[in-house]
């Protein structure tokens, strides 16, 4: 049916050593991890050209996708990302120093602030999004479109089934 892949080798090895762990959950975990690693690698390669880290990109892209005025409260930004509040804070500091984001006080609540993309930040973010999108397109271009759409739909079902329990533990 399909050519064996690296995951099949891993599963076969575990089947010999600890057969009870060599099931479908391990196959799904390994294949999604390897696929994610491939996306992460091509993303990091493109971000490196712009001097951005994945955390920087997460913040910039999140602010850009919320639409004008491209701003969020730090807590909302952290909640939208897979970062800790400390990780978000460190990345925001780097992005402020680079001139890509600015911190603004909240006129309605003096104890609160906003993180906002600067005009230069909007430009860099859009360039980063375009570069990473092209890299992702190159990565998946050998997958027939119908297969890629099916994979996406099946992953949607899988994520819907597991994400509540995972997100609640964060």
Automatic annotation (TrEMBL):
It comes from the Bacteria. Gene3D superfamilies: Winged helix-like DNA-binding domain superfamily/Winged helix DNA-binding domain. Residues 25-160 form the HTH marR-type domain. This is MarR family winged helix-turn-helix transcriptional regulator. It comes from Actinomadura sediminis.
